[in-house]
Design goal:
heterodimer, A: 88 residues, alpha+beta, globular, B: 376 residues, alpha/beta, 9 strands
Chain lengths: 88, 376
């Protein structure tokens, strides 16, 4: 499925995030996937997804400008495919 | 950030390694002719169980997600299970490489019951005739028995790890079929002239024609075959193979040897590439973050003699270890440069009256068995 601003998702419980100068590394202990989160804003959003009712709420809470919504949705969709995120 | 920007970032190094290999012991029941660590006999200075736990505590604090355990034969250590269980309990996943000698029915069941554990069984030929001259007599049957035991214990998808040589390069399809028959995953890696490979590389490494064969095979099957990103020198042939196209030594990769020495990668066990020891002040963390060697490896490298070649961006000049142990300059072509630049240099070196290639700094090979001779 494709995420929209009203979708709710959160970090998969088997995923660990490690901060790095470029953003963070995400590692999924279940499927052994290592994913690069290449921007600190993406890391912030990903960390907070579980604390808000929807992606849209999370983006606003993280102070992300609305013109960046599309690129964030694209990134979050990719992270769902690799199971770094799970849809709630 | 684009993929190439990410690679630029990775080259400057990470706060902790992504891919850390830890060789637990130099002891081994086998004596493979291409052993990267010249293993055979245990070293008296090898880390104790408590020292190993202390290293794992540090890796946990660094958030190293998983470690690659090797040797020697890691399962020879009596505390092998203690170490891997401690690691997994601390959220450090374990991948370990083994020749399979100690995966009997009981150990297979024990391994099958563990989470976050990956097993790689080494096999360098599709039959004993191809495998045993490289890995030792009986080693083919040992590996197959271990695979059978893992399958019987319902371990799940283990990995079959093959070092590609000129003798097994024609068997890639058969290796894939063997892996499929076990529900296993095939992993193929590049032969390095490291360790005892210094002496066997000339006879074992794939010919230039065979390198093209490997490249084409990987293009066709790459998605389902693991390579440890070890074939990036082949990228000069065209389309890039999957994976990070860069040398990770000291940047995203490093090696801890059985006595705690930290090297830039698993293929350069030589003093020139030793960054420190886990017993040093500040431990592994300081070695990783502040050692002189790793700092210098994270500086922008020069393309050197490769600068005039249009393919440097594709192949990155190849593998540092392969150049070093064949005596080639580090800022020049890989000995297996697919355009033949390395072969030309090697030929010139071999023709020169003085050519000294570096030897590995440690050798734990078992003493050669000599035929019994009667002294009269």
């Amino acid at each position: 499925m494709t995420l929209t601003l009203s979708s709710a998702c959160s970090l998969h419980p088997q995923v660990a995030l490690r901060p790095e100068p470029f953003g963070a590394l995400a590692y999924h202990y279940g499927n052994r996937r290592l994913v690069f989160l290449k921007h600190p804003d993406v890391v912030r959003v990903v960390r907070e997804l579980g604390d808000h009712p929807s992606i849209g709420h999370t983006l606003r809470a993280c102070g992300i400008a609305t013109e960046r919504d599309a690129s964030f949705l694209q990134a979050l969709n990719q992270l769902t495919k690799s199971e770094i995120l799970r849809v709630c | 950030m684009s993929a190439s920007q990410l690679v630029t970032q990775l080259k400057r190094g990470l706060d902790a390694p992504i891919c850390l290999t830890w060789e637990l012991t130099y002891a081994c029941n086998l004596q493979c002719v291409h052993c990267l660590s010249s293993s055979g006999q245990r070293d008296d200075r090898e880390l104790s169980t408590q020292q190993a736990f202390a290293v794992l505590d540090e890796l946990r604090d660094l958030q190293v997600f998983y470690i690659n355990i090797g040797g020697g034969e890691p399962m020879i250590r009596r505390d092998f299970f203690d170490i891997i269980e401690y690691s997994i309990a601390n959220d450090i996943g374990v991948k370990f490489s083994t020749n399979g000698a100690f995966i009997d029915e009981k150990n297979a069941q024990r391994l099958a019951a563990m989470d976050y554990l990956d097993i790689q069984i080494s096999l360098d030929g599709i039959d004993a005739l191809t495998n045993d001259p490289v890995r030792g007599e009986g080693s083919y049957n040992i590996a197959r028995r271990a695979m059978d035991n893992l399958k019987a214990a319902n371990y799940g998808p283990f990995k079959i790890s093959v070092v590609v040589t000129r003798h097994n390069v024609d068997q890639l399809d058969e290796f894939k079929a063997l892996a499929d028959s076990y529900g296993a995953q095939l992993r193929i890696t590049r032969l390095r002239p490291s360790g005892r490979g210094v002496d066997s590389w000339n006879d074992l490494h794939p010919t230039n024609e065979q390198q093209v064969q490997i490249y084409n095979w990987l293009l066709a099957h790459g998605e389902n075959v693991l390579t440890g990103d070890s074939f990036f020198h082949l990228n000069a042939l065209g389309e890039a193979l999957p994976g990070l196209n860069m040398c990770g030594a000291g940047r995203v990769v490093c090696l801890i040897d059985p006595i705690g020495d930290v090297y830039a990668c698993p293929f350069v066990l030589h003093d020139q590439f030793k960054a420190g020891n886990v017993h040093d002040t500040g431990g592994f963390t300081s070695v990783w973050r502040d050692s002189e060697l790793f700092t210098s490896l994270r500086e922008p490298e020069s393309a050197g003699a490769c600068a005039s070649c249009g393919n440097y961006d594709s192949c990155q000049g190849g593998c540092m270890a392969a150049k070093f142990f064949t005596g080639l300059p580090l800022d020049g072509p890989d000995p297996e440069c697919v355009l033949g630049h390395g072969a030309d240099l090697l030929e010139a070196r071999q023709a020169s009256p003085v050519s000294i290639t570096p030897k590995p700094s440690k050798d734990h090979s078992k003493p050669a068995r000599s035929a019994l001779s009667v002294v009269s």
